[in-house]
Amino acid sequence: MQLMKFNPTKSFFTELQAGQGHPLVIAGPCSAETEEQVMQTAAALKQQNVHLFRAGIWKPRTRPGSFEGVGSKGLAWLNRVKRELGMRVAIEVATARHVEEALKQEIDVLWIGARTTVNPFAVQEIADALQGVNVPVMVKNPVNPDLALWIGAIERMYHAGVTDLAAIHRGFSSYQKSKYRNVPVWQIPIELKARYQSLPMIVDPSHIGGKRDLIFPVSQKALDLGYDGMMIETHLTPDKALSDAEQQVTPDALKAILAKLQVRKTNY
Ligand code: PEP
Ligand code: MN
What we know:
Layout: H1 12-16, E1 24-28, H2 35-46, E2 52-54, H3 73-85, E3 88-92, H4 96-104, E4 109-112, H5 114-117, H6 120-130, E5 137-140, H7 147-159, E6 165-169, H8 187-195, E7 201-203, H9 205-209, H10 215-224, E8 229-233, H11 251-260
Parallel strand pairs: 1-2, 1-8, 2-3, 3-4, 4-5, 5-6, 6-7, 7-8
Helix pairs in contact: 2-3, 4-6, 6-7
Bound molecules: phosphoenolpyruvate and manganese (II) ion (MN).
């Protein structure tokens, strides 16, 4: 087995925030809902120097019957964000078809969601679709606390020639009662980082916390551990969001959270 020798000192992700002295900020709604919502959210986030705009268009919902995303038509909305606001845009991909559609529309960054990282067949299909393309990819941890599955998904991307990689820590499912929606189990990402020191680490406090109040403390903890950035779900009217309503914050609330965060350490 050829082990991943991940060692880029410069990558898309480190360059995005280069010289700014503050962490990488990825923000945007859990789901793209309407063209207006996407454009208005992105415009508000551009004011805050958000580095990368996120929006899910294909939503992997745990149970059927809830909003499953607007689908391919959302790609054109993200294209408008890119063209008219000059922001970079990221979406979740879960199949080879998603990758092909995203690449046709020049989406800047793809991410693999927690429900996909658990499935090596799905991850390999995505890797095959990315062969020879080298678009930046962020890999969320699997829903279950399994470091090897997380590493395996990152390796599959790397072996497909993807060198601009980042890991997103979004916490792990647990049947135990907890204040978190997904328990952070910080040792797992710490172990990942110990193995791949140049791999950018991004925290997703929205899915870890599951509620607005936990976004600040979870982000601060991650920064104290030396994380490179965070992905925070942002909605114009969070209570009316079609997915993850309780954990989304307004652009103004995001601004307040970012202003309060302190970078106290730079290394693990
Ligand atoms: C999301 O980012 O909206 C999402 C579905 O996240 P996760 O894959 O972490 O559950
Ligand atoms: Mn979400």
